């Protein structure tokens, strides 16, 4: 394989803008080509230079690049092709520039790496990563495009806040066009593994569900007893596990690939820490969703609502700190899935169809009050804080830019300017401008 090596200081021309930039350093090489950091007058960019074999094997590459550049990204989380590039003195090379991936983003594979390389985001940040991923691919698919290779190599995560970055968007194509890649086997829809179909928006939905399972569980959804008992996990075994004979490890009608006691205990514990809505969608994705066809796959919009609700209803066990979703009403009680300690749920606020637990430190995010979408949907606009002199009293501090109105059951109302806090009391209604929040009484929680 011919690997083009470009020296620091080499000059490139950005074709669309006709401005010059300089190669700064090699970032790395992969299966398709090499990526360099370049200095540009508009800031740092990444330059991808293809191996000649990649170009020869992919006759539609240039067409996809030009279409993508003309359309622009469906969301800023996509590190999208910005411009074609010409390396001066190397007219034979095909290349393009894209935004640089920020150093805070790490590969999704580090969710399952061995320590100390493994990253372990909080459960709320895992839910946010799933939510943003679903929203990004919903926008892509709504344009009639498919990604083709949703996998560890192409999605990146900020483990501190759940934000994502999506790379290798040169694979994106019009849905139904001849595929440039088949994908990555453990993420492929079973019909692709069996070579009965090519990548499409429908197969993207399956790959996306696999990614959600990995983000939440750090495990593959089909790796149960069968995978554990497989002595040699070669190509034939993978075709069987993920293509010709796939079976969900939490399939309720066939337990032959279920969790193995003493091996999968952490996976089982995490499974039951998830809300019923998410478990139901995951079960659909890996039972009926193992069959090809749009009707069998879970849609992005279903995931978006489920993960937004999950994000707002997570608490930590006061005894062992294990994170889990609380679906029990205030005034009731449930048991920690890890240590079996009884937990009394905190008060809650209704926000349209959503619900926010009002435990100290809880965060109200922009999408719940109709303010933002996309990456900004998770912007924190308020936090629940204890009263400085009486921790039994909670307040909701306004971290946004607009003034709210809080109305209490005795008829009093007060304006809550940015920086101020509204006392949270049963029956209190807060007008956020576009959405009203209701602090629930215990018997209505």
Please write out the topology.
Elements: E1 11-14, E2 19-29, E3 33-39, E4 45-50, H1 52-57, H2 61-71, E5 83-87, E6 90-99, E7 106-107, H3 123-142, E8 145-146, E9 155-157, E10 164-166, E11 173-174, H4 190-193, H5 201-217, H6 225-229, H7 235-244, H8 265-273, H9 276-285, H10 300-311, E12 314-316, E13 323-325, E14 334-335, E15 342-343, E16 348-351, E17 354-357, E18 363-365, E19 380-386, E20 394-398, E21 404-407, E22 413-416, E23 421-424, E24 429-431, E25 436-439
Antiparallel strand pairs: 1-2, 1-5, 2-3, 3-4, 4-6, 5-6, 7-9, 8-11, 9-10, 12-13, 14-15, 16-17, 16-25, 18-19, 19-20, 20-23, 21-22, 21-24, 24-25
Helix pairs in contact: 3-5, 3-10
Walk me through what this model shows.
The protein has ten helices and 25 strands. It has 445 residues and is an alpha+beta fold. The protein folds into three domains: 11-99, Phosphorylase Kinase, domain 1 (2-Layer Sandwich); 106-307, Transferase(Phosphotransferase), domain 1; 326-444, Tumour Suppressor Smad4 (Sandwich), CATH 2.60.200. The strands form seven sheets. Strands 1-2-3-4-6-5 form a six-stranded antiparallel barrel. The chain has a six-stranded antiparallel beta sheet with strand order 17-16-25-24-21-22, with no helix packed on it. Strands 18-19-20-23 form a four-stranded antiparallel beta sheet, with no helix packed on it. A hairpin with a 2-residue loop joins strand 5 (83-87) and strand 6. It is globular and about 75 Å long. The mean pLDDT is 93.
């Amino acid at each position: 394989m011919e690997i083009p090596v470009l020296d620091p200081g080499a000059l490139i021309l950005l074709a669309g803008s006709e401005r010059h930039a300089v190669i700064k350093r090699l970032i790395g090489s992969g299966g398709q080509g090499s990526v360099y950091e370049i200095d540009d007058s508009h800031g740092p960019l990444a330059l991808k230079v293809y191996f000649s074999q990649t170009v020869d094997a992919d006759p539609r590459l240039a067409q996809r690049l030009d279409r993508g550049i003309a359309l622009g990204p469906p969301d800023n989380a996509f590190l999208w092709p910005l411009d074609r590039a010409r390396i001066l003195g190397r007219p034979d090379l095909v290349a393009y520039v894209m935004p640089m991936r920020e150093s805070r983003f790490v590969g999704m594979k580090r969710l399952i790496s061995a320590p100390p390389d493994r990253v372990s985001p909080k459960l709320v940040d895992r839910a946010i990563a799933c939510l943003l991923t679903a929203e990004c691919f919903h926008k892509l698919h709504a344009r009639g495009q498919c990604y083709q290779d949703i996998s560890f190599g192409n999605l990146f995560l900020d483990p501190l806040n759940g934000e994502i970055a999506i790379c290798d968007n040169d694979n994106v194509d019009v849905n139904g066009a001849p595929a440039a890649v088949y994908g990555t086997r453990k993420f492929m829809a079973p019909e692709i593994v069996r070579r009965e179909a090519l990548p499409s928006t429908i197969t993207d939905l399956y790959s996306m569900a696999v990614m959600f399972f990995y983000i939440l569980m750090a495990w593959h959804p089909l790796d149960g007893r069968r995978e554990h008992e497989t002595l040699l996990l070669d190509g034939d075994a993978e075709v069987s596990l993920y293509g010709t004979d796939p079976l969900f490890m939490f399939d309720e009608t066939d337990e032959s690939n279920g969790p193995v006691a003493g091996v999968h205990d952490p996976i089982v514990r995490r499974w039951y820490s998830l809300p019923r809505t998410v478990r139901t969608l995951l079960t659909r994705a890996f039972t009926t969703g193992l069959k090809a066809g749009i009707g069998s796959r879970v849609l992005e919009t279903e995931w978006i609502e489920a993960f937004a609700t999950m994000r707002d209803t997570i608490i930590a066990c006061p005894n062992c700190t294990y994170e889990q979703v609380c679906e029990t009403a205030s005034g009731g009680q449930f048991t920690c899935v890890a240590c079996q300690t009884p937990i009394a749920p905190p008060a809650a606020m209704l926000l349209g169809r959503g619900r926010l637990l009002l435990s100290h430190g809880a965060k109200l995010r922009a999408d719940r009050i109709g303010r933002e979408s996309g990456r900004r949907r998770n912007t924190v606009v308020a936090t629940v804080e204890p009263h400085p002199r009486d921790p039994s009293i909670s307040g909701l501090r306004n971290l946004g830019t607009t003034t709210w109105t809080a109305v209490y059951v005795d008829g009093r109302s007060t304006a809550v300017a940015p920086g101020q806090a509204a006392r949270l009391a049963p029956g209190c209604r807060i007008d956020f401008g576009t959405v009203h929040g209701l602090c629930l009484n215990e018997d209505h929680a």
